[in-house]
Amino acid sequence: MVSVLFVCLGNICRSPMAEAIMRHKVKEAGYEERIQVDSAGTGDWHIGHTPHQGTRQMLDQYQISYEGIRARQFAGTDFEQFDYIVCMDNSNWSNVRKLPGARDDNLIKFMDLLPEHELREVPDPYFTGNFEQVYDLMDAGCEVLLGKIRTEKM
Which domain holds residue 139? Predict the structure, then answer.
């Protein structure tokens, strides 16, 4: 089983959107038994909450399920449990790397999946309100990540 963890700040906007989109792509590809997807936040403010209303609205618009997604905080044990840990911005990346057990071999900056894009961090729609922009980035990046997993792990 290949495992992917998306990480953002509060785990209610970017990372749960990526989780839902990646789960959808994994299901469409027929890899549900081979790829596990989760998300977490570096902060603890929203533990147990469902995704932000803006995230839910975008996922509803594209008929992508977010059933069962609840915010949780990143834990040091995630380094051993996940093959790919994908951070949404430099702050998330830095915070994760400071935790005990951190390893660089399974950490990815999300926008490194989209090197041709001008943005180098995924903007946080909690502050910008631009959930559509984030959806477009997540959709494109998750497609690239799925191809990367196929090449490296399958």
Answer: 2-153
